[in-house]
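pinging the channel bc i need a second pair of eyes. not urgent but kinda urgent?? the chain im working w is below, pasted from the shared doc
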Amino acid sequence: MNNRAQKAMGLRLKTVLAAFFVFVVLFAVTVYIADPSIYAKTLPLQSTPTGQTLMTLFLVAIVGFVAVLCLGVVRHWRWVFWLVLVAFGASILEIPATILQLVGVVPNLFPVWYSLVRMGVAMIQVAMAVWMLQIYRRYGVWAMGKRASAH
């Protein structure tokens, strides 16, 4: 196994995940500013000061969770690798769900632009999950090498 290639793959994976998480935070903040009704529909809240406070706290919780994920990526936490892999892989369900919403089979609570962006992000997540699985099979978790099996 080429150690240089393994380290490069691990660095590339960390960089791509960090960039994706930054995009997620920027998108969440942009949606919060541009169309806060999306958060209100997600959390079934009214446009009251209390509802606005809860939406803001929800946004802060999202940012905090993404920050923990970023820390886990940088520190190579194994559970973060598996959490991200499973979550990104499960995003494949978002694609047919969005298509069903757009054709009217399932009710769509969100604007079309938001649904299309979510579907695009889901496609990126699925591609990243496939890539992470390939990295795991070849180099191990976080491209840190495979552990020797204990016989």
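so Residues 3-143 form one domain. and Residues 11 and 143 are 9 Å apart (CA to CA). — does that match what u expected or am i reading it wrong
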